Amino acid sequence: MDRVYNFSAGPSMLPLEVLEQAQSELTNYKGSGMSVMELSHRSKLFTEIITGAENLLRELMHIPDNYKVLFVQGGASQQFAAIPLNLKKNGQADYVNTGSWSKKAMKEAKKFIEVNEIASSEDGNFTYIPSVTADKVKSDADYVHITTNNTIEGTAFRNIPDTGDVPLVADMSSNILSEEIDVSKFGVIYAGAQKNIGPAGLTVVIVRDDLIGHAVEECPTMLDFKTHSESGSLYNTPPTFGVYVAKLVFEWIQAQGGLTAIQKRNEKKANMLYEYIAQSDFYHSPVKEDSRSIMNIPFVVPNHDVDATFIQKAQEEGLETLKGHRSVGGMRASIYNAMPVEGVEALIEFMKKFEKEHQ
Ligand SMILES: Cc1ncc(COP(=O)(O)O)c(C=O)c1O
Predict the structure, then answer these.
(1) Could you identify the atom of ligand 1 that is nearest to the CA of residue 74?
(2) Mean pLDDT to the nearest integer, 43-61
(3) How far apart are CA 287 and CA 154, in angstroms?
(4) Ligand 1 near 151 CB (within 6 A)
(5) Are residues 186 and 47 in the same domain?
(6) What's the pLDDT score for residue 177?
(7) Residues 74 and 159 in one domain
(8) Which residue in 24, 279, 325, 333 has the most C-beta neighbors within 10 A?
């Protein structure tokens, strides 16, 4: 079967070139006679892979020297606990509630720290990003936590809040590497790999040096930033194959022209879809215009009874995983970096045809 256009929210599409390179090297990596999966994580070849991956990520995101890059496991969900365990000082933290993932982050943090919900869009069913101004931030908060892109609701921060001296922590799972960002505005950035980085199982944490080494005493060794920072992410066996595929993805992003080019293409894809939805009387975007994500685009039709038909017919045409999250309903197109413009064009063509048949 030919490859499909996969609109899944994650794990999601990887660039075909990356998959083909991994395939070509699968059984014999660089003449070693071994797969990357079989290489010792302390071997010379794997050392080249992990340092190469880190250097490429640093280059792509312009990560300043006073930040460490950690390759860990446990997903973004594990960072929900690691963040308070590493950053707790005064005992309270500010959270911005922008949807399901923010709520999960807050629920977990409450086990370790007092959580202040300083802004929320729950009153609008999370269809917008609430304003977060410096005066809302508690001066003795240990950190402010935001979810930069809300995978389920399809919203994203278009401006990064200024939190003054209080470190800003971001769950960037669904928009890391999708556009240029200024890393120096953040204390910690974390992301599960399975959208724009590589296979599930790898988690990337970017953390400013001064926030390392202050974990609470009872913090498990594996959740302490210091453990991974001091060992170059080699305290125990890292997700080696995931790091290898991530390196291939970083090389692919570089070959596309880096984040400036990637951002331009992502904006083009998102605009194409939003513009089509805007002129249609049939489809509707539930998200406020100034809060729209360029990665995850939910849309609804007037009669929910046709949702299942839409999803099934789309699938028959090679357009996969368009079902909206159960908490939002309707449809959702996740168009991460690896989704080509042609995939979005094919989706719009299908939507036009479906609109004609069901209006
Ligand atoms: C914004 C966001 N945060 C956190 C998570 C959870 O990530 P993980 O499955 O890596 O724990 C996801 C997963 O889709 C997500 O989209």
Answers:
(1) 11
(2) 98
(3) 7
(4) yes
(5) yes
(6) 98
(7) yes
(8) 333
